[in-house]
Design a protein that fits this description.
Heat Shock Protein 90; two-stranded antiparallel sheet; 320 residues; five-stranded mixed sheet; 7 strands; alpha+beta; elongated; 59% helix
Length: 320
């Protein structure tokens, strides 16, 4: 759907520009004819055609600039899509090749119990990698469907963050020493799956792009106007200032796919930005000052105080 809308604008703009160029050509011919006549009777028509022609010329120039802008955006999108195809191809082939190798090894020669246990562990990791890739693609495809109001509920942000940290600790075999949490109570009107996607992607990226020994800091604080802020910081190499807005676009990954060490598709931060905007929030990325790494800042609206009071009264009524 998004791609059809992006094609409609250049086609419409091209048709308008061609029509204006035809009218301009006819207008210049008429101007040449009326300009050659010395009769003052045609003077008002001459100046009218001259004014309209000048306006059409300005519109054509603006159209050329817009068409050039759309063309550059289309070229950048094609480049990102090509990068995306390369990354997805790599993400699919690497675990499949690994699974095939281990299965062939098990079938062709006997292995010890220790080797079989190690093979099973690696194959499970490859299956998990494929599962994450498929989930990312499905999550990105589902973004076009906006949720209904009835799907929203009161979600505890701190609880979602703890669950995400626990799952990522298990996935990357990390301990609590790698994470520093400073959480507080705060409920948000949202779907639990949306908040889980937002913070799981951000924390997963923080771990993947941290240093050799990950040090992840997650802090929450209340803001004015009944809003809450969540900061997720890592100790990696950071993100160049010129790339900080681009990383939230579709298919964007820094660097070359041939030299990339971390798996991914370039869809994670696009999913995060889309879901945060849908929740009427904001997301940004910044340096950590003197410390190395990046810090992602998510700002979301809290549940209204009257709604919280009504919810508490309903809970008390049900308990009675």
């Amino acid at each position: 759907m998004l791609e059809r809308r992006s094609l409609r604008w250049p086609i419409t703009l091209g048709v308008i520009m061609i029509t204006l160029l035809v009218l301009l050509t006819v207008g210049w011919v008429l101007l040449a004819v009326f300009g050659a006549l010395s009769d003052n009777e045609f003077a008002p028509l001459y100046w009218t055609l001259l004014t309209v022609g000048a306006i059409f010329l300005i519109v054509v120039i603006v159209g050329v600039v817009l068409y050039l802008t759309l063309t550059v955006k289309a070229i950048n999108l094609n480049r990102r899509q090509s990068n995306f195809i390369d990354s997805v191809t790599h993400e699919l082939k690497s675990p499949l090749a690994s699974l095939k190798l281990y299965l062939q090894t098990i079938n062709r020669r006997p292995v010890t119990v220790e080797q079989q246990s190690e093979f099973n562990r690696v194959m499970l990791e490859d299956v998990e990698r494929l599962d994450q890739l498929i989930n990312h693609l499905l999550d990105a495809a589902r973004l076009d469907r906006k949720p209904l109001e009835s799907e929203y509920e009161e979600v505890d942000v701190a609880g979602v963050l703890r669950d995400c940290v626990h799952d990522i600790q298990v996935r990357y075999r990390l301990t609590g020493q790698h994470f520093r949490l400073a959480l507080l109570v705060g409920k948000i009107p949202a779907r639990h799956v949306d908040l889980d996607l937002i913070f799981r992607n951000l924390i997963d990226n923080a771990v993947k792009y941290s240093g050799a020994e990950p040090r992840i800091e997650i802090r929450m604080r209340r803001l004015l106007r009944n809003r809450i802020e969540v900061r997720i910081a890592d100790n990696g190499c950071g993100i160049p200032p010129a790339q900080r807005r681009k990383i939230f676009s579709r298919f964007v990954r820094l660097g070359s796919e041939l030299e990339r060490k971390q798996p991914g598709t370039g869809l994670g931060l696009y999913i995060v930005r889309t879901l945060v905007s849908r929740l009427r929030g904001k997301i940004s990325v910044r340096d950590r000052g003197r410390d190395p790494g990046s810090e992602f800042v998510v700002e979301l609206p809290l549940l209204d105080e009257p709604a919280i009071a009504a919810s508490e009264k309903e809970c008390e009524r049900q308990q009675k």
